[in-house]
Write the structure tokens for this entry.
Amino acid sequence: MSNSVSRQAANHVPEPVAPIAEVMAGFRAPWALCRGWAIDAWLGRQTRDHGDIDILVFIQDQQALFDYLAGWQLVAHDPHTSDDTAEPWDGRPLGLPGHLHGRLNTGEGLPERVNAAAQQGFSLDIQLNDRSGDDWILSRQPRISLPLRNGVQRSPWDLPTAVPEVLLFFKACDLRRRDKLDFLGLLPHLTAEQRDWLRDAISLIGHPWLSQLSP
């Protein structure tokens, strides 16, 4: 990020994120804050409301995640389950694309369906990602990847966070209103190198943001 991004907010993690950061602090495998809260982490301020806290974990580490979050209720969504399933994840191997809704197990039973996750107490949304060795595989067709050490860095909140160009790459795949707003918010803070990487990555899939990333 450029120097225009204030680091006055360093270590001042917002309350919704702080408990998750504390929980994940001891997880030995790579993880990172992602999506909306990650955008705010790089900007050093909250830009909008967020329904939940998104983190990414690599699918190759799913067994370690299952063991680590043994005290949580986890519901898995992948190509082998329905979108509104409330079946607890029993550690079965998950496929991509996939994610997990999670909430601390307080003894409360699971709802019949998970169709309003945040309102049902599932404040944690774990996005499963892919890697090969030390490379983060963002897309296999077309092949788009980068070294994991470049894709996850410490944000102004001093948390492992997906870097801005990777966040915007994923948002480029959706193009919802909030994704466009996040793009406009982060764009002025991208370095020339970050702009070049993002432009090259989304040029492989074709995208209306390309004109705004031109030198």
Q: What stands out?
A: Strands lie at 31-33, 53-58, 72-77, 99-104, 124-132, 135-140, 143-147, 152-154, 160-162. Residues 1-10 have pLDDT under 50 and may be disordered. Residues 18-162 form a domain with the Beta Polymerase; domain 2 fold (CATH 3.30.460).
